[in-house]
Predict the structure.
Amino acid sequence: MDVITWRPGRRTAIVINLLALVVFALGLVLFGLPVVLLSRTGGRIVVGFGGLLLLVVFILVLGLGHEAIHGLVMRCYGAHPRFGAAMLAKIVPVFYTAAPGHHFSRAQYLVLTAAPCVAISIVGLIFCATPVGAYLFLPLAVHFAGCTGDGAIIWRVLQEPKGTVVEDLLDGLRFHPLGV
């Protein structure tokens, strides 16, 4: 079996973005439900200019926190992560965390890819059941939709057999079969 390099292209970016719309809707329900059920306003939320600015700040903080979690998990596996921003297939702006040249086991790569979505979603869901939930449910839904890219990576890694070593690249992944 040969070494395989995977770099998401334009078609993948389009599919990820279309799926992200569905995931965003699911995120609105997931994170909005506790807000509506526990709200004293009957689920009505009014946001002024300051609130909109706060939403944008929360979305950016969640995005940066997401990448920081990737980096922390990479460090736990001995990698030296690099952080940046780029355009996926020249259409989608993304933040990224990468450890170019570092080799991870398949299981390690699955964990480090899923960790931010799982951690932020669980903590976010808890906060959505508090009075600040009204300010957080929309940024959390946006973050959840942004995790669709990580979902695509997880799907791609799962296509490789157990024992595969995953090499992180700045713009994709390289799969090394066991013994290569």
About this structure: The beta strands are 4-6, 82-88, 92-98, 103-105, 165-168, 173-176. The chain has a mean pLDDT of 90.
